[in-house]
Write a structure and sequence with these properties.
The complex is a heterodimer of chains A (about 120) and B (about 110). Chain A is mostly beta strands. Chain A is about 0% helix and about 50% strand. In chain A, the strands form two sheets. In chain A, strands 2, 4, 5, 8, 9 and 10 form a six-stranded mixed sheet that branches. A four-stranded antiparallel sheet of chain A has the order 1-3-7-6, with no helix packed on it. With about 110 residues, chain B is mainly β. The chains are: A mainly beta (about 120), B mainly beta (about 110).
Chain lengths: ~120, ~110
């Protein structure tokens, strides 16, 4: 497809389990971003990749969160030992190049529910 | 770091009315970028516009127009002759010179009643 794709679209998990969320950016886009959208916090920036490198990981909420990008394309956001407060919509975006002030195009998101 | 304030949580108007969504930003960067995104009920964020801090020209795209005023740190969005399909949550966002992504406002939920 032409847009950013994310999988799964919905994920229900039990507290304490690990989850992996996947993002496939627009073909040719070198920059990739993860955001989280929740009722309480609104839209929060989590991490940005330029190619396979993330210059700054301080936006990740805790050390239970990690992200990687391989081959300059697909990215995975992993949440270990999920907690109920991790329930949110996780959005991925990509742009044709860094830096982050380039126009970002968003995917449909993964809705995560931690029971 | 940036801060974006959208003071209007929800606006409801009748179709064909004009409506303005307010956005006020704070940044210490001399070069920065401002954005508007639309989030319809389907949930996907749709890009509407991007402006840089050096270009204060207002922009019009069909029924949409944007008014950027550095003197008041505002980047307001007006929909002329609103339509039901305009119903959505609209987010204003700002990006500065760092690698910290977009800073979004809390969004304005726009309801267009038929």
């Amino acid at each position: 497809g032409a847009g950013v794709s994310q999988s799964p679209s919905n994920k229900v998990t039990e507290k304490g389990k690990d989850v992996e969320l996947r993002c496939d950016p627009i073909s040719g886009h070198t920059a990739l971003y993860w955001y989280r959208q929740s009722l309480g916090q609104g839209l929060e920036f989590l991490i940005y990749f330029q190619g396979n490198s993330a210059p700054d990981k301080s936006g990740l909420p805790s050390d239970r969160f990690s992200a990687e990008r391989t081959g300059g394309s697909v990215s995975t956001l992993t949440i270990q030992r999920t907690q109920q407060e991790d329930s949110a919509v996780y959005l991925c975006a990509s742009s044709s190049s860094g830096p982050p002030w380039e126009t970002q195009y968003f995917g449909p998101g993964t809705r995560l529910l931690v029971l | 770091a940036q801060k974006v304030t959208q003071a209007q949580t929800e606006i409801s108007v009748v179709e064909k009315e004009d409506v303005t969504l307010d956005c006020v930003y704070e940044t210490r960067d001399t070069t920065y970028y401002l954005f508007w995104y639309k989030q319809p009920p389907s949930g996907e964020l749709v890009f509407l516009i991007r402006r840089n801090s050096f270009d204060e020209q207002n922009e019009i795209s069909g029924r949409y127009s944007w008014n950027f005023q550095k003197s008041t740190s505002s980047f307001n969005f007006t929909i002329t002759a609103s339509q039901v399909v305009d119903s959505a949550v609209y987010f204003c966002a700002c990006s500065g010179g760092g690698a910290d992504g977009l800073t979004f406002g809390k969004g304005t939920h726009l309801i267009i009643q038929p």
